[in-house]
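Open question from group meeting: does this chain pack into something compact, or does most of it stay loose? Before anyone orders reagents, we agreed to write out a predicted structure and look at it together. Recording both the input and the output here so the notebook holds the full record.
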Amino acid sequence: MRPFVVGERRNAGDVGSPGRRRAGLRVSFGTALAAVAVVLGGAVAGCGSVSNGLPKNDAGAGGSAGSGAGGATGTGGEHGPGGASGTGGTPGTGGAPTSTDAGADAADAPREGGAGCTGVQASCAAIHACDATMPSGNYMIAPDGPTDAAPVLVFCDMAIAGGGWTVIYLADNINLNSTAIPYTVASQRLRDNSTQALIAFRNLNLNMVGSDWATFDLPAAWRASNPLTATPPQDLTVSASVNGGLPALAQLRYGIANFAALCDDAWITTSNYGRVCLQGTKAALYSGFTTPSGTTDYCALSTDVYSTRPCSDMIRFSIAVR
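Structure tokens returned:
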């Protein structure tokens, strides 16, 4: 199965041991009892309970009030004075309240958005803008905004030409034979909000790695429909960067019509065959997609004869936008 359409990502306080005091060697029995009462009467400061390392929002226990024991009766004498009253324990403090997560953070962020994003993004460019470390792969996007009821699964190319490319078309087989080929990702808003195009061959067996690629400004006609369906065929001069080279002017040629053998050759509008290429460059030349002739479409270079290299799972034509 091809990988495309298709891009998922608490403390216990130490309780100090109470200090110990060494008792005097000579104390009265009444005084000793009073001291015991003081110790027993003192409360241990309460603390919130913990569960699974997370403080609960409960109240600490209050200390119980101690009461001094009466003095012992003297032998043959008057009653000894009553022992001192024990002091009440310090009221316990409540446990720390558990906070409620009010929004997405690094732990909550969806795989689609990345650590710097909140929720599903509108495009691969938006994902890349808020987290440039996200790798190429399949992501969910919501082209119509955060309230989009139908997010779509797309492939994001985060490697070529700075990354942030949303693949909107990938040939779904190696012998299309059609003059009505839609975009794989149908969102009009995604195309309307994009300014650049990327054509490339992609290796379905190697995570959609791109090759023989070129970037240029997104033609207005490509926003409306897939260039593979253009009729009459079009020739458009663009400033293109090929395989990362400096931008240079080249003729972008695309449509359903026939041609002799090369990207340079004139269109033959009396029959269909199909061609997309960038004249005079090493960018992708994709052809044969409108006709059943042969067993495959062709995925050659724009400087080569069209039939030099058949398409395969290692070489599929694609269009991406940013």
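Observations to bring back to the group:
The chain has two domains: 28-100, 162-321.
The chain has four helices and 13 strands.
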